[in-house]
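>> received
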Amino acid sequence: MAILVFLAALLVAVPALAGCGGGGNGGEEETILIGIMADFTGVAGTAMQPTIKAMEDYLTKVVPASDNPFDGVRVKFTRFNTELKYEKVTGGYEELKSRGVKMMIIMNAQDKELLGSRPKDDGMPVIGTMGLQSMLADDWSITTWSPIQSQGEVQMLWIMDDWDYEGTGRSPKVGHLGYDLVSSTYYQQGIDAVRNDPANAGKFIWGGLEKGPLGNVTWTSEAQRLSNCDYIIVSVAGAMLSSFVAQARGPSNYTGKFLTGMEGFPGFWPLVTDAMKGSMDKLYGCYYVSWWPWWDEEVPTIKDCKKYIQDTYKGAEATELLGTSSVISGWELGMAIEEAIRIAIDKVGAENVDKQALRDGLRGIDMEPEGYINRWQTTANSNALQWNQRAFEFKLAENKFVPLPTVYEPVLTRP
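>> returned
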């Protein structure tokens, strides 16, 4: 992996070095144009923008300025903003394809699902952060993380570990707050996989699934109906998440625990703390599950992300990013794409890197980043690079999330 050397002098020098790399085209660099389809301004926009910027900067600034730049190629990006509107997905895909991209980054798993076999039929390699069980066998796409359903499974595994069955003399009551997008349905599939497993018979009391429309910020009824749960799994994002936490802890007097996946607390924690100003003492019992290392861990990727934030952002913006997952997520995505490009160059040469070579590069990823709990690799029946996850707890006294030690392997949602 490229070691972060993000100094101003080198950044000034990078443009002047274009054309000086290796490769078989008279010393000129080949361009790999990558299309990005994501929600930049909708519900997920506040977390998506720094995520994508970190990934772009990693591949266009950090890698070229490192002691191991790409040999004979450079990476460029072109974006399409879906605004989290599904009706824009097919047109966005065709628009990016018309721009001549050699690879696409599709961040929303549901967007990829809507496209069906179109990318594979077109010979278009695709990478994203999270997919779905139904897409695991697609050999023209990969994801850096396991499917949405696996998050629901791991959340339930953690609840079984966290709950004091003997001390309370009963099973925990678990509810789910989602929205009327299919992503909440997929979370529920993972939850139900654990609930319906005969090995877990009687281990849960089900509190129900409550849903609100996209963009909803008024949760009076939903919060009240879930208020007697011991755990509420929350699969909404952005202001929908922060408003629910505030209303549940406030008027509904909910005293149990909140549990999200990667798109919840780690992506939108600043919105939650803003909504709870003056009542920060009520942010007890907040947890999430995910795959990555976190900010206080001695891991090379985390050190690089901290240095990047220090060099790129200032003041409150930098402080907020050091408490969220956006830069870590983008960095991991950049690391995976970097590895795929290097595999492609080694296999066919810089001047011959095409869609097929990049597809083979994505499928050929097999790496063990230091400090990670997963070896990154695909298998014949799974295109997800990372499966195992940990829970993270917000510590009120320390005002930060910290990783908990147990590593959970989802088996019910994995082929």
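>> Residues 152 and 340 are 29 Å apart (CA to CA).
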